[in-house]
Each structure stands twice: as structure tokens, then as C-alpha cells.
Amino acid sequence: MNIPLSLPEDQPVLLLDRTHDLSHQDVLYHFALDELLCRLTGDGGPAVCHLWRHPRAFVMGVRDSRLPHAPQGEAMLRSLGYDTAVRHSGGAAVPLDAGVVNLSLILPFSSTGPAPDFHQDFEIMVELIREALRGTGQNVDTGEIAGAFCPGTFDLSIGGLKFCGIAQRRQRKAFIIQAFIIAEGSGSERARLVRSFYDIAAAGADPKQYPLVEANSTASLEELTNIGTGQNAVHPFIVAVKEVIRSWQSGKELTEAASRFTMPGTEEIRVMAEQMRQRYKGNSI
Length: 285
Known about the structure:
Blueprint (H helix, E strand, L loop, with lengths): L12 E6 L9 H15 L4 E6 L3 E5 L1 H4 L4 H10 L3 E4 L7 E4 L2 E9 L9 H15 L8 E2 L13 E3 L2 E10 L3 E9 L4 H15 L19 H4 L6 H18 L6 H5 L6 H14 L6
Helix pairs in contact: 1-9, 3-5, 4-7
């Protein structure tokens, strides 16, 4: 397999698959774990590929939380049983559930030469997801999809319908590339949920301050490919991602990298999640 992009210094990437654990009700727990793992990586720890899911959450971007009626929009979501939070990485609002696979690549900056620009960061994730879906026979395109939620230059789509968005978070010595992949269920239903949030939160706001979401912009891998149906669409994608990561580092010695990894404790993650929540408390209810 020819990989046009290499990971920084070609170092091994440890796989942390937490997709089987849907017990955490606080969606910021996962983002807090990413933040702590990124610090570890920057301080000499290994690169990490972190996969996770959440049962029912709605994650806003900072700009979303500053919309004139964001508290009312957030209250509506909570009345529907969604955990809500503001994330520290870029991007706009995204609904999460068991049919959405969240993928974080946590990588150190190279010790020599300039840090990669953000395009290179995103392209690593694009290549990973493309390789994971190669077996479906579908072409995965990049480019902003009009009407999609959390729009961006590195939207991933098949046949003009978005199934994945990518954001990033940079620390001083390492960075996180985060992607959400809609694997199962209805993309249009998720888009309608996001639209209902903006209908409330952005009432009276300048249309340039928020995405104009349309239901027919988004789909799941279940709808777009032959990957499978229901949870049988989720698990093959997770397996494919892990196979690609392993293939990228075929022949590398992982023992030494594993010896530099320390999983943050539950209390440490909880404290970080609370710090993140307080950081944006003024922007959220």
C-alpha cells in the first residue's frame, strides 16, 4: 500500500478503541481524554489513534454557543434527552449517537523543521478514512458540502452527500485531528435535528454567523455504501480503520511505544472535563 503522507517521524501509533463503552453520559469526558492524551504525546508519549462513541449528545462549536438564543436551543435539545457541550476544537454543531464513530489522531509535532500546516494535518485523516472505505468501492471526495452541518473545506462525501467532518486542536508540542463519521442511521434526520437547533438559537442572527443546514445534504455510510446495515455498518468501519493503522506501521516495534503510554485516570479525566466546561460556561447554559 502506498501512503502519500507519513506520520510525523514515522513513529508507531497506538490504538485506543473505546467504541464498545457507551456508559459515559458526559460527552466532554471523551474530549477531556483527548486533551490529556495530547499532553502525554507532546511530552514524549506515543502517537495515539483514539476511537469512541457516545449514546446521545449534541456538541456545539464556540460560535454556536454565542448565538443570540443559544440557551433556548440548548434547552430544547436537553428536553429531548441530549447531553450538550461546547468543544474546544474548531467546527460547528454536531449530533452524536451510537451510529457515529468519533476518530481522533493524536500526533506529536516533528522535532525537526517547521510544524505541519493544518492542511497536512487534515490530509492525514482524509487518507486514513479513504483507505478504510476502499473496500466499499465508493469514491470519497473532499470539499465543503452546501447545506451540511459543521461545514468545512475537508468535508468528506460520497455522491455529493456528506458523511464526515474534520476538526483539529493544537497544543504546544502535539495536535489532535478529530473526525466524526456517520456510519449508521439517517443522515437527513441528524441534519434536521441540527437545523431545529439553529432555528431557535440563531433566530434574528446574521445568516453568515451559522450554517444554513438542509436535510438532503447528509447521509450515513449505511445509506451510501454496502458496508452494512444498523450496527453492522458501525463495526466494519471501526475494524477497517484499525486495519489501516496497523498496515501503516507494518514492521514497526510497538513495545517501546507502549511503554511510554500511560492511560489517564478516571478522576483526572473528570477534572479536565469540568475545566473545559467552566472555560465555556459563559457561552452555554
